[in-house]
Amino acid sequence: MKPKILVTRAVFSEVIDLLAQHFEVESNQADQIYTERELIDKLRGKDGVFTTSSERISAEVMAANVQIKAICNMAVGFNNIDLDAATRAGIMVTNTPEVLNQTTADFAWALMMAAARRVTESEHWLRAGQWQKWRFDTLLGADVHGATLGILGMGRIGQAIARRSLGFDMRVLYHNRSRLPVEKEAHANNATFVSKQELLRSADHLILVLPYSPQTHHTIGAAELALMKPGATLVNIARGGIVDDVALIAALRERRIAAAGLDVFENEPCFHSDFLTLPNVVLTPHIASASEPTRRAMAYCAAENLIAALSGAQPQNIVNPEVKG
Predict the structure, then answer these.
(1) Which of 45, 41, 52, 47 is nearest to 15 (CA)?
(2) 111 and 52 part of one domain
(3) Catalytic site residues?
(4) Residue 322 lies in a domain
């Protein structure tokens, strides 16, 4: 008899077909958002679960379904899963790294350039019929070429972002939990490791690419924003909660930094409505990896992880390797 799995959100039909070759699949192509109680009920009798970053797989969910062997997340981040509880329960947890690095790096640049050059603000201004004549000082923004790019979190995506700066003749500074090997710094446009405080003070454009955890909660708050240049831009493509959104709204409203580009928010999709009142912020709905080829690659990666995990093999992308297949 085939193992039973739950796919918690809608996904490409071809991926469902692949999974169905190996499992009895309960899918959610209607894309209902399950409550914790519904997840507990849906997972009864299931051996594994294919998740996305929108589902909270709590200790309570796992405790009610001790038969689960694998949780395979269609995302790089896995802060939606209680990893400690999963490890204690002997449940393998996997993610989908690598396949979205380049697409996400592209999008970081899109947000940075849109924020720096006031693209969203200028489109709204034009659509509102405000463009009556040319003026030398209309919607003046900041240059990207020749500027200092700051990257907070220098993993695979951060390094991909840094490499793109070469064509813009930018100086690259970064801060990370640990310094990169010299050869990786060289490959990332000669990125220079600095303290977090120096990074905040020096960056003309700061991009956040660090994972979310209790330790990184509100890594950027009022004190950190106060260190930034008045003309600086801030881009967050990492996770909501890394930035204190209330503090950022105040800094943008008071023009203590010039602009921001945000793809992630605290409590998304119920983000802080005051962002909608600010002209100097570019807002996107968590779509940094949302090219069709990349989302397909993520879905197939999560599926292959689940197939490996429930066939007794060690998945390639396991994030708690102490749990053995």
Answers:
(1) 52
(2) no
(3) 239, 268, 286
(4) no
For 193, 217, 246, 261, 296, the CA distances from 221, given in Å and listed in that order, are 22, 9, 9, 16, 35
Span 283-325, pLDDT tens digits? 999 999 999 999 999 999 999 999 999 999 999 999 999 997 6
Alpha helices in the chain, H assignment, sequence order: 13-20, 36-42, 59-63, 83-88, 101-116, 119-127, 156-164, 182-187, 196-202, 222-227, 245-253, 292-310
Give the model confidence (pLDDT) of 183-196 as tens digits. Answer: 999 999 999 999 99
Count of CB atoms situated within 10 Å of the CB of 321:
11
Give the pLDDT confidence of 104-147 residue by residue, as tens digits.
Answer: 999 999 999 999 999 999 999 999 999 999 999 999 999 999 99
Q: Exposed/middle/buried for 48, CB within 10 Å: 0-12, 13-18, 19+?
A: buried
146: left (phi over 0), alpha (psi -120 to 50) or beta: left
For residues 125 and 184, state if they share a domain: yes
Q: How far apart are CA 105 and CA 187, in angstroms?
A: 15
Instruction: Answer whether 232's CB lies under 8 Å from 256's CB.
Output: no
Strand order, beta sheet including 92-94: 24-26, 4-7, 48-51, 70-73, 92-94
* CA-closest candidate to residue 147, choices 175, 118, 173, 184: 173
For Cα atoms 200, 205, 210, give the angle at the middle one, nearest 5 degrees.
65
**Rg (the chain; Cα; Å):** 21
Taking each helix axis from N to C end, the angle separating 292-310 and 101-116, rounded to the nearest 10 degrees, works out to 140
Number of domains in the chain: 2
The answer to whether the predicted template modeling score (pTM) of the entire model surpasses 0.70 is: yes
Q: Which CATH number covers residue 78?
A: 3.40.50.720
| pLDDT on residue 299 | 98
